[in-house]
Specification:
single chain; about 170 residues; mainly alpha; globular
Length: about 170
């Protein structure tokens, strides 16, 4: 989903599919959470997971297209509660809290990573061998490692996109 997120930013920056850039719920999530994002993230994550499955042949529990689509949709859905809370607190879309900017930025990087980490942690303990693990890992170990890795990747990619002037804010 990280590569899908980067490609999504290029779609937004390039004005591609602007007719789908309609807010899902303007007063609830703000203008930046759009139907284009839902569609593009779901499709791109699906296609990229399919390509990865062809190249590396992982053992996935379902068809790679379905798995990827689920990951892309999960990524989008995980960002919505954060947006809803920020709108209720009066924080404008695309900005951070003026009072707690670092906390606000951290939460922005953790939202999608947190839900992904929880889903992965629920899946792996019963399926270690499917993921190539030779020992059993508990829920909290998988969730913590996944959260750290995913939020770190999210932060790094955000920083790169800002440095390349593809994204406006970290």
């Amino acid at each position: 989903t990280a590569v899908a997120g980067v490609l999504h930013m290029l779609v937004v920056r390039g004005g591609i599919l602007n007719q789908l850039a309609q807010p899902i719920w303007l007063s609830g999530f703000g203008p930046n959470k759009t139907w284009r994002g839902v569609l593009v993230m779901t499709i791109l994550a699906s296609l990229l997971t399919w390509v990865q499955a062809i190249l590396w042949q992982p053992s996935l529990p379902v068809n790679p297209l379905v798995w990827g689509a689920g990951l892309g949709l999960l990524y989008v859905l995980a960002e919505l509660p954060n947006s809803l809370v920020k709108r209720r607190l009066g924080i404008a879309s695309g900005t951070q809290s003026a009072r707690f900017p670092w906390l606000s930025a951290a939460i922005d990087k953790l939202d999608s990573a947190l839900l992904g980490a929880l889903v992965l942690a629920l899946w792996i303990p019963g399926s270690e061998s499917e993921f190539g693990f030779h020992q059993s890992y508990g829920f909290w170990t998988v969730a913590s490692l996944s959260l750290a890795a995913n939020s770190g990747i999210h932060a790094l990619l955000s920083w790169i996109l800002v440095a390349l002037h593809i994204k406006q804010r970290f």
